Amino acid sequence: MEGSPVVRLGWASQLFDLPIRVSGAASVESERFVNAPDAAIDYIRPSARAQYINPNDDQDYSPFLSYVPRLDFDPTFANNFSTRQDLNLGVDKVFNFDGDFNRIPFGSNSSSATVWSFGFGAGGQRRFRDPAPQSYALFLNPSAAYVISEQWNTSFSMPTTGRWFDTINGVNQRNLTVEPVGVVEYVIPSGWLGGVDAARILGNPAADFLIGVERN
């Protein structure tokens, strides 16, 4: 059994009048294990991302560039024993459909009429790590989502990552990680939060119920 409290702050905005969305986040996370207390670890993980968004077609190919460093600490944020920096280049794409599986026409906000959505993210990564080894990775994340009602929706994704580590002292390693995840989400009604404006200020909170598997 594992406990993983996370606190994350995020920000996003359009870059001037360009069709570029820039975003940043910073998170603090701890992992504690009931039966393996020596495996406890703390993380600090900031990130920065720039992504092309077609203002006339939100289903268009959407390339992105992101930078995600992570600092690993002994509990509780005592000794920074590892630092890694991920530089990612990739593309996102979605295909939106109505309830009868008719393709939603291209537009700036096709998601408002979407019942079924299928998509993928794909790209490559260079990871710089201290201590070594460093690595390259290719990733693919197919996904599907279904809007059940105004309050309920469900989704499934399967992030898959192939990673190649640099050779050190004649030894190298290649990993394949598959992480299928299913989510059922309940969007908290805005009336419970004081109205639409109050819900928006609070980030339109929702409760997510997840089941996932990781296979390496």
Structural account:
It is built from one helix and 13 strands; from the N terminus they run E-E-E-E-E-E-E-E-E-E-E-E-H-E. It has 216 residues and is mainly β. The chain has one domain (2-212): Porin (Beta Barrel), CATH 2.40.160. The relative contact order is 0.10. The mean pLDDT is 95.
Could you give the order of the helices and strands?
Answer: EEEEEEEEEEEEHE
- The proportion of strand residues reads over 45%
Radius of gyration: 20 Å
The count of helical stretches stands at: 1
Q: State the separation between the terminal residues, measured CA to CA.
A: 19 Å
Low-confidence stretches: none
DSSP E strands, number:
13
Q: Look at the structure and give the CATH class.
A: Mainly Beta
User: How many separate domains?
Assistant: 1
CATH architecture: Beta Barrel
The profile of the biggest β sheet is: 13 strands, antiparallel
Shape: globular
Structural class by helix and strand composition: mainly beta
User: In percent, how helical is the residue content?
Assistant: under 10%
Rounded mean pLDDT score: 95
**CATH fold naming:** Porin
